[in-house]
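User: Sequence recovery, please. Input:
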């Protein structure tokens, strides 16, 4: 409760309307009044020997103190000199210390980096001010090599920050001027991190990226598809700094210390030094400090074989973390870490003790810990992702045997690379072998038909899920004491995972097109017969595309049409090629982006499927389904630019589809320039259904969209995407033209139906 009180105090200051407006005098007055009241109440309670009263008073004092400290820091960020300069858009020169590793992102016009800077001095508008404000530096990727702990000087333009944890955002095109290099401990940690990467440089790309993530949270090289598979399987904690990393590293050090004869206080010292070394290795950033605290608490709680000591330690850890960094109160990672640790402390011991009667102790603990952590985190994960993983516990159990060796061997390999590179490479190879098993488990289990089930992220649904998880946590130990019940439930869970759950009423009768809910991308299925289809684009991820085809009962794909080579249209292709009989892959003539085109060629070659570029105007017919290529009407080159600067979007294959008496227009991501060319080429074009180009982006040609005469518009788009898709302007344009609009981010899969000659639409699930 101590940690919860601190959490409530921090959230009140960050989320309530009045929290951040408290000025220093008001905060001081509030704290003084509350403190006097608390002390008076505590004295009275002690006289009455009322320990419960004292405890409640302590909680109130903690909540008010942490809330007041948070409000003061928010007020300082929003009203200090840096914030004032940011509101005026001033050009400034700042000096400060780099407090985060630069993160490189891909933008529309190239890559850029994000770096947090703790500003010590700022010059702007003729003022020289000393401060301790934090700013986010947005710069060219020349900042990517700026080392954590460096003191730098840079000139740029300040702008206001969105969140309360920053005083401003500094935009610059200049490289930082180095004033002081990091301390030697940072250099040493950087050398070990480089050693870990070097030790695995000769192994496969996915394993090469996963080993550094296991050792020190360095996940910069991991592919988006692997990260999604890990998330689906509940293994995300392996790809980021978490308490798991710390327990493995520190546990290994303690085993070595015991082996060489260290005992009692010496082991405590080794543990403390191990935690400090881990923090330095993984970078002393808020997420790392959080992981170190939670991992230490989990070790303490499990080691004591009783929850009381661990729960008290968790409360103190939460209080300390929130006092140091109150912004953690609104961090999903912090919430998940705290809940997982609480689950391990409170739920795992009864489960472990229940299983001890018929399982070895190591097996009982190996099963109880991931089950408890998963139950505690499931409601929050569902609120974030809209899914509940059914394979998480099994996946964690299957990989548990190799997580420790992969982490320890990776660390040892990184250390040996500094002194004996051949031995370091050997350890790295062994670590990569273990990591490869984790990757195989994640990729295979993520593709099980029911690896995860959709769960609405709205309040009532999450409340029901939370109550269900609490009930399971209380009931599980009773069931686990009986081997028969445990075995039967395990078999039932496995059957559910490997067999698709029934979808009553899906697919709907008379469906002719389904826009699959694949996230931020396009994945369309045109029906030929009950088992055969044409697929137009495959989405950004194999898993949702595969599940959509399974729900529809599709086994044979005559043609896969990839409108263009952007990842959100092609990265799900492996699921179509490996799980179905595919005739051919049709692609646009412009092989941009090149890496997307290369991947498609590689995947098709591995599946033995041919690739062709259809010619403008060609017509294909399969059964009752006919489609014609009506765009692009000419070959495009890198010199052609649309309004968003995307040649690939304007090179999208555009299909006019006829089936069961209706016409559908599938336009990929074509932008206004391509839309205008289409309108000039086919001025009288009329359709019944429009797949809205480019996920409903605001870059549309009103003339084309409003003159198509479509009755139904389908928007394939991801929930809470970063692009602002679909645009309210575009949605208004479509509705103003008389179209009914359905979007996959709100209603899931969208099916267009034709029954008795009547056009209809059915959706699989609502996310409203």
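Assistant: Recovered sequence (768 residues):
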């Amino acid at each position: 409760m101590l940690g919860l009180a601190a959490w409530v105090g921090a959230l009140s200051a960050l989320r309530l309307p009045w929290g951040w407006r408290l000025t220093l005098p008001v905060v001081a007055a509030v704290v003084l009044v509350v403190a006097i009241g608390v002390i008076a109440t505590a004295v009275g309670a002690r006289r009455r020997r009322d320990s419960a009263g004292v405890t409640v008073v302590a909680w109130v004092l903690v909540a008010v103190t942490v809330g007041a400290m948070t409000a003061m820091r928010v007020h300082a960020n929003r009203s200090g000199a840096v914030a004032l300069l940011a509101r005026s858009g001033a050009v400034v020169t700042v000096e400060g210390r780099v407090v985060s590793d630069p993160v490189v992102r891909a933008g529309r016009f190239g890559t850029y980096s994000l770096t947090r800077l703790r500003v010590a001095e700022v010059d702007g508008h003729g003022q020289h001010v000393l401060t301790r404000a934090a700013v986010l530096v947005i710069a060219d990727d020349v900042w990517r090599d700026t080392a954590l702990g460096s003191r730098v000087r840079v000139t740029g333009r300040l702008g206001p920050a969105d969140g309360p944890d920053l005083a401003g955002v500094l935009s610059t095109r200049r490289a930082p001027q180095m004033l002081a290099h990091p301390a030697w401990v940072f250099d040493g940690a950087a050398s070990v991190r480089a050693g870990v990467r070097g030790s695995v440089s000769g192994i496969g790309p996915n394993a090469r990226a996963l080993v550094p993530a296991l050792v020190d949270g360095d996940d910069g090289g991991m592919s988006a598809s692997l990260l999604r598979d890990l998330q689906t399987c509940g293994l995300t904690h392996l790809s980021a700094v978490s308490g798991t990393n710390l327990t493995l590293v520190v546990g290994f050090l303690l085993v070595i210390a015991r082996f060489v004869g260290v005992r009692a206080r010496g082991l405590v010292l080794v543990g403390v030094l191990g935690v400090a070394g881990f923090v330095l290795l993984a970078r002393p950033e808020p997420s790392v400090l959080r992981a170190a605290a939670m991992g230490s608490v989990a070790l303490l709680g499990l080691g004591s074989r009783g929850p009381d000591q661990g729960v008290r330690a968790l409360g103190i850890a939460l209080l300390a973390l929130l006092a140091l960094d109150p912004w953690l109160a609104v961090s999903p990672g912090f919430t998940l870490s705290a809940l997982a640790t609480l689950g391990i402390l409170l739920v795992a011991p009864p489960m472990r003790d229940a299983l001890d009667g018929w399982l070895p102790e190591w097996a009982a603990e190996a099963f109880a810990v991931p089950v408890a952590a998963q139950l505690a985190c499931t409601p929050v994960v569902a609120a974030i992702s809209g899914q509940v993983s059914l394979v998480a516990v099994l996946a964690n159990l299957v990989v548990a045997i190799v997580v420790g060796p992969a982490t320890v061997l990776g660390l040892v390999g990184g250390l040996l690379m500094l002194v004996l590179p051949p031995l370091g490479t050997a350890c790295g190879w062994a670590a990569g072998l273990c990591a490869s098993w984790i990757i195989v488990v994640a990729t295979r289990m993520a593709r099980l038909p029911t690896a995860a089930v959709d769960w609405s992220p709205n309040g009532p649904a999450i409340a029901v899920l939370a109550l269900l998880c609490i009930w399971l946590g209380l009931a599980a130990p009773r069931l686990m004491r009986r081997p028969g019940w445990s075995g039967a439930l395990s078999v039932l869970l496995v059957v559910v995972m490997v067999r698709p759950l029934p979808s009553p009423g899906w697919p709907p009768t008379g469906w002719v097109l389904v826009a699959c809910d694949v996230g931020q991308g396009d994945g369309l299925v045109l029906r030929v017969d009950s088992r055969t289809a044409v697929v137009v684009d495959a989405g950004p991820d194999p898993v949702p595309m595969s599940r959509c085809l399974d729900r529809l009962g599709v086994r044979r794909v005559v043609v896969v049409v990839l409108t263009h080579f952007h990842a959100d249209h092609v990265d799900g292709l492996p699921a179509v090629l490996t799980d179905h009989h595919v005739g051919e892959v049709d692609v646009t003539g412009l092989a941009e982006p090149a890496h997307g085109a290369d991947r498609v060629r590689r995947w098709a070659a591995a599946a033995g499927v041919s690739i062709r570029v259809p010619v403008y105007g060609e017509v294909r017919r399969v059964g009752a389904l006919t489609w014609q290529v009506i765009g692009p009407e000419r070959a495009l080159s890198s010199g052609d630019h649309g309004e968003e600067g995307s040649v690939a979007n304007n090179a999208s294959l555009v299909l006019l589809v006829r089936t069961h008496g209706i016409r559908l227009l599938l336009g990929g991501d074509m932008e206004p320039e391509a839309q205008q060319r289409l309108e000039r080429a086919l001025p009288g074009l009329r359709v019944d259904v429009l797949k809205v180009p480019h996920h409903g982006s605001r870059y549309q040609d009103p003339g084309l969209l409003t003159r198509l005469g479509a009755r139904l518009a389908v928007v394939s788009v991801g929930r809470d995407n970063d692009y602002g898709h679909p645009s309210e302007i575009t949605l208004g344009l479509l509705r103003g033209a008389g179209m009914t609009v359905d979007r996959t981010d709100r209603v899931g899969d969208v099916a267009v139906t034709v029954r008795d000659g009547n056009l209809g639409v059915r959706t699989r699930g609502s996310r409203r």
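The two ends are 34 Å apart (CA to CA).
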